[in-house]
Each structure stands twice: as structure tokens, then as C-alpha cells.
Write a structure and sequence with these properties.
With about 475 residues, the protein is an alpha+beta fold. The chain is built from 17 helices and eleven strands.
């Protein structure tokens, strides 16, 4: 065996193979299995586990709110395509589904089953006209030795409907033990979900109807007649048969009181339920601080940031890249789909980055890179800590349109605002109404380098001096 392998690898290739040699074996290996390896009763888990329901809903609803945009590649740059046909299609995917519902169900299906499928119905030009979400538990992938996927089977009440590969868009999570289907997080959370469900059932059975637990036990020591015994039982069931937790008083002979309270086992049970909650939420990427009633405001903010950066945004990237790979080619080449980057940014780090780039970039470059503003005619000059004074003619014309008194009043308000915010964390920006764009940018640029009250005042004094 070793000699055979040595002789085989001795003849080294000088070029890449046209296709992967293992694809045929993979297709043959999976061809005998015509049923998707779904986690059993995933829908019931979603319906029956409050923490699974909360986790999936948080992810699906938050992801459905994020805008998806189409860009055209122009060299290394991405140019936004306004009102692209795909964006219009996603805004109204089919007569029964809205854009929010489509993405909510797609993301939820990925979290619940590990797979999500879109069926594409075309128009006369060969482009998608409608998008329909398919239930993953009804979809079977048919492998092919050359094309990898020959198509799909959609089964309803024993009838299998064949779907071509080009008609179906398959989103899936990574599965280490399967070549075609994604892995459901429910599989990883199975133990925690079952434990939490059994604990909830035990809790319900213990404190449910006709299973009341009194605050104590009354032990009747003397012998009583059958008539008195039946009377005692009737009184007990009448007064303490529900979920009430009250002290029992019964008519009888000598009695003894025995107190009942929470044992260490009961307390461990409550802690165990919290541990199961934390494990389920962590599997889905939900920080406990998002749902904990004891979380402080600071902890909740950190938890929200972690959720967006480490859980939600990667899931959106998976969907956007799949749409780019298999759906956008219907509309032409050099198109990409991307979600808005919703990851929180460190305001202080961003400010330091702007300060570092300020001497190196032009005003238009700063406007485009950091403020998403369009270029202006006066923005080709290099940006400096003290921007050059624009031409008097242009400034006087702008001031006439805006009203010089309104400009001076707004400058005074902005100066007070900047001085009040100097010793505080960066908050909301000053809302500019009367100042021309050129003056507003001059003030903003100067305030980037203002570290104390005197430097703030000098920025506004310089601007006022230029007003004449």
C-alpha cells in the first residue's frame, strides 16, 4: 500500500485538475438517502421551549429589519444601484409575503432547522418574478455526480414535486457530518432543551391543579372513626385541593404540626433552570444580559453590542453572499448584495482615526470616507486643522440666503453646546439649520482638534472673524 502511494504521488501534477475528484463519490454516497436529516420535532421545540422561542425570534426579527442593498463593482469600489430590480422584488416577494416576513422566516428557518429554501418563479425574461419560502422538513436534495445537485424534491402528503436546481436557493449552516444539509442549533441544544422542559413539567405537575402543597402537615395521632375520616378528607379537598399554599386546620383529636419549606434540593432546582436558560441562549448567540432582569444598563449595552457583532451580523453576511452567488447572476455580472454594516463602532476610536487622517486627506475625501457626504466644489483643498477661508463673494451670498443674524445666533448656540459637551462623552451631534454647509464643516473640523475650552472658543472666534 505504501509503495503504491509513493509511486502515485511521485508523478507530480504541473497544473490544477478541472474538477474535484471526490464529487462523484460524495454524490454516490448520498444518493441512497432521500430524506433530509432534520432534528426531530424542531417545530415542537420552538413551540414548547420559551428560551428557544425567545432566541430565534430575537435573531429573526432583528435580522429582518436590516436593509439589503445591491452594488455594482467598479474596480475595487462598490457603487450603489438605486432601486435595483432585486430590491423591488424583495420588497414584495409574493402576494402572501412581505419583505419582513420573508427574511424573518428565512433566518428563523436557518436557526431552527439549519436550512432555508427559496423557490424562484420566473418571468418571460428569465428573471425571478416571485420568491416563495419552502418548508425545510419537506425538501430533499437530489445529488448529481457532475452537477453536484441535480435538483430538489418537495413532498406534500406523499406527493413528491420535482424542482430544478436553478429554481431553488438553498441557505444552510455548516454541518461537520453532512455534505448537503446544514446543522440545526437545536441539535446542539438538545440536552439543555430537554432538561429545561422536564424541569418545567415537574414544576407544573407539582404546583398544578389538584396537586396543592400546604405550608405544613397536620398529623392526627388518635384513632378516629370512618365517618370522621371521610369528613376530614372532604374538608381537606374542599379547602386545600388546589394550588393554594395555606396552613391546614382540621377537626379531630390530638394533632401535630409539621412545617414544610424549600429544601436545598428545591433551591438547586431553581438554579438549574437558570443554568439551562443560559446554555440555550449561548448556543444561539444571545447574551444573557439581553434577557436578564438583573442586568444593568451598562451590561445590557455590552450584551447588545456582542449580539450584533458576534451573532446577528455573521448570519446576515451568510445570506447576502448566497444571494450574490446564486440570485444576482440573473440580473447580470459584477453585482453584489450587502447588508448595511450594523456593527457598533467605538466613537472615541473613530474620532482618533479622523484626527490622524485629517492632515493627509482632502476635505472631499474626509466627507466621503467618514461622513458619507457628497463632494463639494470647495472640497478639493487639503484638510488642515484650520481650513482655508473661502472666497468672500461665495460666503456673502450664502449668508444672505441664510440670514446673517440667524447664522450668528446658531454659532452662539453651537459654541455653548460644544462647551457643555467638552467634559462629557460624545453624544448627539449639534443640529445645523441656518449655517451654510461650508461653515458647518469648518466648525466641525476645528472642533475635532479642540481639547479644552480655550481651543473651542478660538474655533468659533475664527469663524466669526471670517464673517466680517
Amino acid at each position: 500500500m505504501f509503495n503504491w502511494l509513493t509511486d502515485f504521488f511521485r508523478a507530480r501534477r504541473d497544473r490544477l485538475r478541472p474538477r474535484a475528484p471526490h464529487i462523484e463519490r460524495v454524490a454516490a454516497h448520498n444518493s441512497h438517502n432521500l430524506s433530509p436529516p432534520l432534528e426531530l420535532q424542531s417545530a415542537r421545540v420552538y413551540e414548547g421551549s420559551p428560551w428557544v422561542y425567545i432566541a430565534i425570534n430575537r435573531i429573526a426579527e432583528a435580522g429582518a429589519l436590516v436593509p439589503l442593498k445591491v452594488y455594482r463593482l467598479a474596480g475595487e469600489k462598490r457603487v450603489g444601484v438605486e432601486n435595483h430590480p432585486l430590491e423591488r422584488l424583495l420588497s414584495n416577494p409574493n402576494p402572501l409575503t412581505s419583505r419582513f416576513e420573508l427574511f424573518e422566516q428565512t433566518i428563523g428557518s436557518l436557526e431552527l432547522h439549519g436550512n432555508a429554501y427559496w423557490f424562484l418563479a420566473g418571468d418571460g425574461r428569465g428573471q425571478p418574478r416571485e420568491i416563495w419560502l419552502l418548508r425545510p422538513d419537506r425538501v430533499t436534495i437530489v445529488p448529481h455526480e457532475q452537477r453536484i445537485v441535480a435538483g430538489y424534491l418537495y413532498e406534500i402528503h406523499g406527493e413528491r414535486i420535482p424542482l430544478d436546481a436553478i429554481e431553488v436557493l438553498h441557505f444552510r449552516r455548516w454541518h461537520p457530518d453532512n455534505d448537503f444539509y446544514g446543522l440545526s442549533p437545536i441539535a446542539a441544544a438538545r440536552g439543555a432543551v430537554l432538561s429545561d422542559r422536564h424541569m418545567a413539567d415537574w414544576n407544573r405537575n407539582t404546583f398544578g391543579q389538584d396537586n396543592g402543597v400546604p405550608a405544613g402537615i397536620v398529623n392526627i395521632k388518635d384513632f378516629i372513626s370512618d365517618t370522621d375520616f371521610e369528613r376530614i378528607k372532604r374538608e381537606w379537598r374542599s379547602n386545600y385541593g388546589g394550588a393554594s399554599r395555606r396552613t391546614a386546620f382540621l377537626r379531630g383529636g390530638a394533632i401535630e404540626w409539621q412545617h414544610i419549606g424549600l429544601s436545598h434540593s428545591d433551591l438547586d432546582f431553581l438554579q438549574g433552570r437558570r443554568a439551562q436558560r443560559d446554555e440555550i441562549l449561548n448556543i444561539f448567540g444571545i447574551p444573557v444580559g439581553l434577557v436578564s432582569e438583573n442586568a444593568t444598563e451598562a451590561n445590557a449595552k455590552v450584551a447588545e453590542r456582542q449580539f450584533i457583532e458576534r451573532a446577528l451580523y455573521p448570519k446576515l453576511v451568510r445570506i447576502a453572499q448566497k444571494i450574490t452567488q446564486e440570485l444576482l447572476p440573473f440580473y447580470g455580472a459584477d453585482l453584489v448584495a450587502e447588508y448595511d454594516d450594523i456593527r457598533p463602532t467605538d466613537a472615541q476610536a473613530r474620532l482618533e482615526e479622523i484626527r490622524t487622517a485629517y492632515p493627509l486627506l482632502s476635505i472631499n475625501e474626509l466627507r466621503a470616507n467618514y461622513f458619507q457626504l457628497p463632494p463639494v466644489a470647495w472640497g478639493e483643498a487639503a484638510a488642515t486643522p484650520h481650513p482655508p477661508t473661502p472666497s468672500p463673494t461665495r460666503r456673502e451670498g450664502e449668508l444672505e440666503s441664510a440670514g446673517k443674524s440667524a447664522v450668528e445666533n446658531e454659532l452662539a448656540q453651537w459654541e455653548r453646546f460644544a462647551l457643555n459637551r467638552l467634559e462629557r462623552d460624545a453624544g448627539r451631534a449639534f443640529e445645523v439649520r441656518a449655517l451654510p454647509d461650508e461653515l458647518a464643516f469648518e466648525v466641525s473640523a476645528g472642533l475635532l482638534f479642540a481639547r479644552d475650552r480655550e481651543s473651542v472658543k478660538s474655533v468659533f472666534a475664527g469663524v466669526r472673524a471670517g464673517l466680517g
